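Narrative of activities, Objective 1.

The group set out to show that a structural description can be obtained from nothing but a protein's sequence at a throughput compatible with the screening campaign. Below is one input-output pair from the validation batch, recorded exactly as produced.
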Amino acid sequence: MAYRKKNIYIDLSTLGQMKTSADRKVILEIRERKIEAYTQSLEPHHGSNSKRIALNRRIKLDELFFEGLGLWVGEGAKDKGLYFGNSSPELLLHFLKFVEEKLGINRQNFKVTLNVSPTRDAEATKNKWSKILQIPPKNFTRICMDPRISREYAQIYFNGIVLVEVMKTLQKKLKPEISSIKEFAIPFLRGMFAAEGQVAFRKNGAFHITFSSANLELVSFLKKSLHSIDIASGKYMPQNRKFPIYGYRNLRRFKEFGIHILHPEKRIKFEQGFSAYKRINVLHGEEARALILQRLASGPKTYDDLAAALGKARTTIQAHHIPILEKRGLVKRVGKRGQAWMWVLAEPKHLAPL
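Output recorded for this entry:
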């Protein structure tokens, strides 16, 4: 997906003053092509400086950069250094590509921990992941045998709190652009969906997608970024810490922008769901409303009842189809089931085609 604007860079020397959560100052020593980043105490002669980490000074803001930033925001730990964990080798390799090409950190500097089933051979598993990630076996620090898991999980990390502050500052500095410029929003959301998105199926074959986060500020930012590319999202559900995206139009735009493609398994599930959605769930407005009337012929129904029966989003039923049928005098409210409104046919005879 090509950008309209070419060769946009950010210079890390312009990030401004930073300090860590432990109240240590971030120092950036500027070179022609690199910067050396480290931390030092705010009080003179109080503790030694941290290790120096060399980073690319100028970073091109392209798809790889925003995909990597989205992966880190969604999946990376943010307290000790640059961490990223996943069960997908493709996603781990993509993050390493981001680290090497954008930040300028060689993957040989990364350590690896593995979580595997006790049925696996530890040494063989380590060697396999070493070949996949192109990180030497000596960098593998721990293999945790976990009987609860069926899939291997790898975490790659490079300790250095200064990296956390640089990444946080990059994200903060670029937030206005990400949430307003389509060419930035799309790859960032692609990374976020690969890290924290899900493809969910209902029993009737209908599907939708969700983004998960307990961080309400991040949720608001994601919703704003989706809105900037004309994708509407549903209400945040605090008990599940996620918000959904329903509806053919929204899912079609999601597919057109390729937001689902980074994680191979999620890509396959999305493509399968979308293909089935096109066959089963895409109804013309009048066809959908005729089916609503047919469902109401058997008795009162809530918005959720109708949405499940038609395989459509509740918001589509509530905000579009029912108001049209009510205006035509074909349906009416008859009280509530708990907190949910119940709907019935206004006149049983009105079952003829609209």
